[in-house]
Specification:
Number of strands: 8
CATH superfamily of the largest domain: Spore Coat Polysaccharide Biosynthesis Protein SpsA, Chain A
Helix content: 40-55%
Order of helices and strands: HEHEEHEEHEHHHEHHEHHHH
CATH class of the largest domain: Alpha Beta
Distance between the termini: 47 Å
Number of helices: 13
CATH architecture of the largest domain: Alpha-Beta Complex
Largest sheet: 8 strands, mixed
Strand content: 15-25%
CATH topology of the largest domain: Spore Coat Polysaccharide Biosynthesis Protein SpsA, Chain A
Structural class: alpha/beta
Length: 338
């Protein structure tokens, strides 16, 4: 009975997200507004290749950018965070906000392995201000690292953006499932007001989203696609997912976001056993298990085709290992992006 209920909940949730996403209205484009792009990085040798790609991507689009780094870098417009103010991404951004952010400007934050594929987000600002929106995300599009398996599994992020994130951030205009650190567009006034007052976290983007929801701010989903690099190894993939799981669960508990906690748990439960096992164990679960698992079947098959990795659809347990790894996760994780 419990398993059947879990599958029905998740199946109905996925279906509802897809239906709700159809009501998404694409932002209207206007003149290109000045937006300061901010790339946050630890700046060590592991991230330099990906960071170089990011800088080239921003320069190709003619976007104004600065780099916030824990270490000196051979790039222009690099701000090195003082050692006593550094330690993780949250602290680095807080230092930048306190010293450089202008309330009247708009900012777009990126990780050191992500860059926009177009500048439409900068041409949506006028429309956003007219409608009272203060923050946005784009749609994440994975690009291959050295691991075909990780690249194939990472396509779940793309489809999540087109379904549940679009439904929440772009249709309801409330980031109930969080915001990505990749192309986090935000008004300077709101950034200064919230960042220094919100609690420190290893998933600072999710906490920021919860603060926006708590205070009634409205968001939108940008048309812009954002290129993100998939982890280079299975180990890094698991560590990355572990950090997310630990941070999201901790913040969801703090902000009493039962929706995320329940659906995250149910999603893990669905993934663990997957469709064939459910059917073999209990015939009464065929319909709800099919509904709940169909989304994952489609996504992982799509990722397998993109990565040309035949075994990828049968490797869904990797996501589960990542979530379980959160039990031992203690701090921010820097993965290899070379």
């Amino acid at each position: 009975m419990f398993a059947e209920l879990m599958f029905w909940i998740f199946g109905v949730f996925i279906l509802s997200s897809i239906v709700l996403a159809f009501f998404y209205r694409r932002p209207k484009l206007g003149l290109k507004r000045p937006v300061k792009c901010v790339v946050v990085t630890v700046g060590d040798r592991k991230v330099l290749p990906a960071l170089t790609t990011t800088v080239r991507g921003l320069e190709k689009l003619g976007l104004d950018y600065v780099i916030i780094s824990s270490n000196p870098l051979p790039f222009k417009n690099t701000f090195v965070v003082p050692k006593d103010r550094d330690g993780n991404k949250y602290r680095a951004i807080r230092w930048f906000v306190e010293n450089y952010v202008d309330e009247k400007e708009w900012y777009a934050f990126f990780d050191d392995d992500s860059f926009p594929l177009d500048d439409q987000f900068a041409r949506e600002i006028d429309w956003a201000e007219e409608n009272g929106y203060v923050a946005a995300n784009g749609v994440l599009v994975p690009r291959a690292g050295r691991s075909k398996l990780c690249f194939s599994l990472d396509w779940i992020r793309y489809f999540d953006d087109l379904t549940r994130f679009r439904a929440a951030t772009g249709v309801l205009h409330k980031p109930l499932f969080g915001l990505h650190g990749e192309l986090l567009v935000v008004k300077g006034e709101v950034l200064k007001r919230l960042w220094a007052s919100m609690p420190e976290s290893i998933t600072e983007d999710f906490v920021f989203a919860m603060e926006l929801v708590k205070r009634g701010y409205r968001t939108w989903q940008s048309r812009t696609r954002v290129s993100i690099q998939s982890p280079n190894s299975l180990r890094d993939f698991i560590r990355q997912r572990g950090r997310w799981a630990r941070g999201v669960f901790a913040a969801s508990y703090k902000y009493r976001n039962a929706l995320v906690m329940v659906l995250y748990s149910v999603g893990v439960f669905v993934n663990v056993l997957f469709l064939p096992v459910h059917i073999l164990l209990n015939q009464s679960l065929v319909v709800p298990a099919f509904l709940a698992s169909l989304y994952y079947v489609f996504v992982y098959m799509y990722g397998a085709l993109k990565a040309k990795h035949v075994l990828a659809p049968f490797m869904v347990w990797v996501e589960i290992v990542g979530s379980l790894y959160s039990i031992k996760q203690r701090g921010f994780v820097v993965i290899d992006k070379s």
